[in-house]
What we know:
There is one protein chain. This protein is mainly beta. β2 (about 20-30) and β3 form a beta hairpin. Strands 1, 2, 3, 4, 5, 6, 7 and 8 form an eight-stranded antiparallel sheet that branches. It is built from no helices and eight strands. The radius of gyration is 14 Å and the shape is globular. It has a single domain, classed as Jelly Rolls. This is (S)-ureidoglycine aminohydrolase cupin domain-containing protein. Pfam families: Cupin_3.
Amino acid sequence: MSQLLGNAFSAELDWKPKTSTFRTGARYLDGLTAGTAVDVWGAEVGEYQGVTADEIFVVLEGKAEVTFHRTGETIVIGPGDVVRLFAGDTNTWRTIETIRKVSFYVPPVQSGS
């Protein structure tokens, strides 16, 4: 089962990150699932592993290779690609070109919260 849902659009953007990974101003949405948010996330060239939240995102710019540990699937994503992540899954991101995406997600519950 592919987690790459399709390609929505292509866009030219003039934007540069200041840190290796970054998430900007989450906007929490009333009337939806508690804790649901929309924000922008990005990463510079490099590789890292992480645990996902329930999320759907659209790549705005850049290119990355994402390997999903649960399924063993590896996809290459770029501008306009729409991807679904499942809470608790682990994956490895290999950012090929600085990437930025807009995400609709439910943040994971922090222990002790």
